[in-house]
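User: Hi! I have a protein structure encoded as tokens and I'd like to know what sequence might fold into it. I'm fairly new to this, so please keep things simple.
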């Protein structure tokens, strides 16, 4: 199968490309960034996904499947360019996929789509709407991109579209929202709260994206692996020190004293859990995570210690 991966030079995109190549697929990549020492067999086009050179890849190569990962997800980065990449980029990928005969489109979304709220259900299912955007506008463009990709299910029924809402990833790449939050020696928590966190080893997250492309599935799917663990366990097992802070003092504490910077709306995400029901994805693809959460935490910790030495 010929698979096109957008955002292929991102750390998760690299894992996806490597797994696809290992499984014998022909792999194309589009990214604005270069990939020095890219694996043999990958054909990379350096281009903005919204520009004509990217469309030329669709037109000339006619990929069988597309895995769209060219989105900006860092919650601290909020700019007009980010909005354009996430929304216009997703629109371009959907339109090119429909125009040039792609059979399977996989959109890599985030489980934070659902928002963190005190009255949220314990397990989120795929038919629930996004909540909490009024308090966390930095997520609005990612939610909009998710919804636009999902709209292809009825706008382009000939295109098998799968929107995957993947839980937090963790592993040796030390990349992603959760890894950034755990990067420093001390991790802030909200005094009196210890929410559950759904964590998936980054190698398993890549495997889930590959499995979705191979299975030719349609619909919206939550993607998770091991059962969730409390934030306190994540902090302890990654050899960090929890720093409980009264909620009223968080805004003057974050970004200082070696603590990570967080938007004001992100505070709810360290107060309330976002736990998802991923049974539909398992039934559709047979996906099972290989790595327990203990391995994800250990791999992240080992890589952090190596980087510090």
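Assistant: Happy to help. Inverse folding works backwards from shape to sequence: for each of the 309 positions I chose a residue that suits the local structure. Here it is:
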């Amino acid at each position: 199968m010929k698979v096109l991966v957008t955002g292929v030079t991102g750390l998760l995109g690299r894992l996806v490309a490597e797994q696809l190549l290992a499984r014998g697929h022909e792999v194309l990549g589009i990214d604005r960034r270069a990939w020095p020492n890219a694996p043999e067999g990958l054909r990379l086009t350096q281009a903005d996904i919204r520009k004509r050179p990217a469309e030329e890849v669709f037109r000339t190569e006619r990929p069988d499947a597309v895995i769209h990962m060219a989105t900006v997800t860092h919650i601290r980065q909020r700019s007009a360019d980010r909005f354009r990449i996430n929304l216009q980029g997703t629109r371009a990928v959907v339109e090119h996929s429909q125009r040039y005969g792609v059979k399977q489109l996989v959109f890599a979304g985030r489980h934070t789509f659902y928002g963190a709220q005190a009255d949220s259900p314990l397990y989120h299912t795929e038919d629930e709407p996004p909540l909490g955007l009024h308090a966390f506008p930095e997520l609005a463009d990612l939610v909009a991109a998710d919804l636009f990709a999902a709209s292809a299910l009825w706008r382009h029924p000939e295109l098998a579209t799968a929107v995957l809402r993947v839980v937090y990833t963790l592993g040796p790449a030390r990349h992603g929202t959760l890894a950034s939050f755990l990067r420093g020696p001390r991790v802030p928590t909200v005094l009196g709260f210890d929410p559950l966190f759904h964590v998936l080893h980054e190698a398993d997250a890549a495997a889930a994206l590959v499995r979705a492309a191979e299975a030719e599935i349609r619909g919206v799917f939550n993607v998770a692996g091991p059962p969730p663990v409390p934030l306190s366990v994540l902090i302890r097992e990654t050899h960090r020190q929890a720093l409980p802070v009264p909620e009223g003092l968080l805004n003057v504490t974050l970004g200082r004293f070696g603590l990570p910077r967080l938007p004001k709306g992100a505070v709810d995400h360290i107060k309330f859990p976002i736990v998802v029901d991923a049974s539909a994805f398992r039934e559709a693809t047979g996906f099972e995570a290989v790595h327990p959460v203990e391995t994800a935490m250990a791999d992240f910790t080992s890589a952090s210690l190596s980087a510090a030495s």
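A useful reference point when you look it over: Residues 80-99 form the longest helix (20 residues). Feel free to ask if any position seems puzzling.
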